[in-house]
Design a protein that fits this description.
The chain is of the alpha/beta class. It is about 30% helix and about 20% strand. It folds into two domains: about 1-35 and about 450-560 and about 580-720, Alpha/Beta hydrolase fold, catalytic domain (Rossmann fold, 3-Layer(aba) Sandwich); about 55-430, Alpha/Beta hydrolase fold, catalytic domain (Rossmann fold, 3-Layer(aba) Sandwich). Strands 1-11-12-13-15-14-16-17-18-19 form a ten-stranded mixed β-sheet, sandwiched between helices. Strand 8 (about 275-280), helix 10 and strand 9 form a beta-alpha-beta unit. The protein is elongated and about 95 Å long.
């Protein structure tokens, strides 16, 4: 019977859809195209049903939170808000404010309030964006006069300070307005402008396995970024706004233009307390945000700004265009948003104000569009359209938060940067502890994070077929070379399969740094571990994962990953839009596994056991894949070589993975293998956390630590895989 099964299996493979004799077929893989950058095309495809959208929205929202270092959400410590220096104007007041979003981390800005408030009133968050001098900006009079002539502005006095104009008009409409500083702008000096906005080169002194700074591989591995810090400040700004007694929690809004539009989109996507959103000149299928403060690793992988805006649906949302990257929004992006709002039953709640005849701006016309939109949805009762009136602007000196009685804290620079990142790391570790109470809680917590970081679950591995290239009779087994083609993702993997003529229904994927050639020694003989499997009647598959073997033009192993064409040494410009090589190779292992588990080729039966072996830098990849594969992989044998993401000192390393350290590093992925059988080499001892999870899962015997001769580990791995 076994002979018949083996014959059916092999003949089925030989009857594959395509046969090409000769040398290896080189992969035709979508991933060989240049990596995507922030200037790519980012369309949004609206779902057909609300149920479909709810599933997708949850995934993207979690991806955003992860990318910002906000999953789990950091501890909300007391704000310790100080409000001082009230300035009385005829119809409103202006106050100076500072508070701590986290201990020692200050947020500064101005609070505008209407006079003669009766009952609860709307609260508005205003993010200023990338304008010179930001919250304290003043335009030159000649420029204002030019803008009046072109219709962009209305008044010479008020036009000098358009951000004040926004806040004053909202206060006149009966709203409480909180305008705060982006990092390094106006009164925010704890981070330099060079660090926040113009970072260019890695800083060796901040690139350490302990006590690191921003932009380092360690910061990226813990999902710490300038953008994440700013998003956290936006969340805490909402906390502050809602702490003001007059503010109606059911009428909260946020607006901002350019970089402020990015902040608006992000907060609207992740904070359910926000009831109306108005990101100006930012929502687009084109350029996604050019500043380091608008990018973070993982953020826009397989998504983009239009979908971020979609996450706010069906709540009221307006946006504007200009003669910039948003100029095609009316035909590319907005119709899809409108369709989603229609699917959710609220097409009237989304609005686009077109301003392509003006440059990048938050001019009086765009501001009027926001005022009118807010007036309508919050039922403020003003005549529509709402057009602002002139006013006498306050000077920057009058608006400045710090003074003799409220001196600016001296905590800034590299030491503060290191302190703050360590604070967030320690806080995250405490918050993740409950996830380690059992295998189930680990999978529901850290497991969810790992799945999103890798970017593909086993269920999403895709459908593949087999393209036979060549076959050779090797006596007791048949060698077949060909391609496993993942039709879902347009990915191809060159493979070599060794089939014993007395196949017993077992299949093993054998992987290491040499790709499919890892099945053989340098002299052409089969490796001892592989031979052990063949002797036991198991079929063995070797494969070139992405940028191994046939993927390499010069045949030399890849030492550094590909980056986008951007001179600034920031991982987020590449890995904010593309999966890392580590993640892509994990996808490959899932592809191979799912193919073995599900493919129907000829009349062959499905394997009765699937094992995966991983050595070299592929060992951690196999652990990650095994953590995601569930029951699909029966056994995994891995040499880790003691690898930890936290030890990497170069974000171009093929094993670099944003978020790799944050969720308990490689031991976290090891623990996610529980309760399934795993064999580990390369570890001096079993990580206590992993042992604890296997014990709690009742699977102590399924965790095997190899401490024998390193020269024999592949042989021992082969023996163990079929025990």
């Amino acid at each position: 019977m076994k002979l018949k099964l083996a014959a059916a299996f092999i003949s089925g493979l030989l009857l594959a859809p395509l046969f090409v004799s000769g040398a290896d077929i080189l992969p035709s893989d979508k991933r060989l195209a240049p990596p995507k950058d922030l200037n790519g095309y980012f369309p949004f495809t609206p779902p057909q049903t609300k149920i479909e959208w709810d599933t997708r929205a949850e995934f993207v929202r979690t991806q955003i939170l992860l990318s910002q270092g906000l999953w789990p959400m950091p501890t909300r410590t007391p704000l310790k808000a100080v409000i001082h220096g009230k300035i009385d104007r005829p119809d409103h007041t202006v106050e100076k404010v500072y508070f701590e979003s986290s201990p020692g981390f200050f947020v500064t800005g101005n609070l505008y309030k209407p006079k003669n408030v009766k009952g609860k009133v709307p609260g508005v968050l205003f993010a200023h964006g990338h304008w010179k001098d930001a919250r304290l900006s003043e335009e030159a009079p000649n420029k204002v006069r030019h803008e009046i002539a072109t219709g962009e502005e209305r008044f010479e006095k008020g036009g000098v300070s358009r951000f004040q104009s926004m806040c004053v008009q909202l206060a006149r409409m009966g709203c409480v307005v909180w305008q705060w500083d982006m990092l390094s702008d106006s009164d925010s000096h704890q981070f330099s402008r060079e660090v926040v906005h113009t970072f260019g080169k890695q800083r060796p002194e901040m690139n350490k396995t302990e006590n690191w700074g921003l932009y380092s591989p360690q910061a990226e591995s813990n999902l710490q970024s300038i953008m994440g810090l700013q998003t956290w400040n936006a969340i805490r700004s909402m906390d502050f706004l809602l702490s003001i007694p007059e503010v109606d929690s059911e009428r909260t809004a946020m607006t901002g233009a350019s970089g402020g539009g990015t902040q608006t989109m992000l907060l609207a996507a992740i904070d359910p307390r926000l009831k109306l959103s108005f990101p100006a000149v930012m929502v687009s299928t084109s350029m996604q945000g050019g500043c380091t403060c608008e990018n973070s690793s993982m953020l826009r992988v397989n998504t983009g700004n239009v979908e971020f805006a979609a996450l706010f649906a069906p709540k009221p949302q307006g946006m504007t265009t200009a003669n910039d990257w948003t100029k095609e929004m009316a035909t590319k992006g907005f119709p899809d948003l409108k369709k989603l709002y229609s699917t959710l039953g609220k097409p009237e709640n989304v609005m686009l104000h077109r301003g392509e005849h003006h440059p990048h701006n938050y001019n009086s016309l765009s501001r009027s569009a926001f005022f009118t939109f807010l007036n309508h949805h919050f039922k403020l009762g003003h005549k529509s359209p709402v057009i602002e009136n002139d006013f006498d602007p306050l000077t920057p000196a009058q608006l400045t938060v710090w003074d003799a009685e409220h001196p600016e804290p001296k905590t800034n620079g590299p030491d503060f940067e290191r302190y703050l990142l360590k604070y967030f790391k320690d806080d995250s570790e405490k918050l993740l502890q409950p996830s380690t109470s059992s295998a189930a809680s680990l999978r529901n917590g850290i497991g969810k994070a790992v799945e999103i970081i890798i970017g593909r679950s086993y269920a999403q591995a895709g459908d593949s077929d087999w393209i036979l290239n060549d076959k050779k009779d090797k006596g007791k087994y048949v060698e077949m070379t060909g391609i496993i083609r993942n039709k879902t993702y347009a990915e191809e993997l060159p493979v070599t399969w060794l089939y014993p003529k007395e196949w017993k229904g077992q299949a093993v994927v054998w992987l290491d740094d040499a790709g499919k050639s890892s099945l053989y020694n340098a002299d052409g003989s089969v490796k001892a571990g592989v031979q052990e499997l063949l002797n036991a009647g198991a079929t063995v598959m070797g494969a070139d994962l992405l940028f191994q073997g046939a993927f390499l033009k010069d045949g030399k192993p890849m030492k550094q990953t590909r980056l986008v064409s951007n001179p600034r040494e920031f991982a987020g410009f590449t890995y904010g839009y593309n999966h890392t090589l580590f993640a892509q190779r994990t996808h490959d292992v899932l592809t191979l596994t799912r193919f073995l588990k599900t493919a129907k080729i000829g009349s062959h039966p499905q394997p009765t056991l699937i094992g995966v072996a991983g050595f070299g830098e592929i060992g951690p990849v196999v652990i990650a894949a095994r953590a995601l594969a569930g029951d699909a992989i029966d056994r995994a044998a891995v040499d880790t070589k003691g690898f930890r993401f936290s030890n990497l000192l170069d974000y171009r390393d093929p094993s670099f993975l944003p978020g790799g350290s944050k969720y308990l590093d490689l031991p976290g992925m090891m623990a996610l293998n529980a309760p399934h059988a795993i064999w580990l080499a390369g570890e001096t001892k079993t990580p206590a956390f992993v042992s604890d999870i296997y014990t709690k899962a009742g699977a102590v015997t399924k965790f095997n630590l190899y401490a024998g001769d390193a020269s024999k580990q592949e042989l021992e791995a082969g023996k163990w895989l079929l025990k």
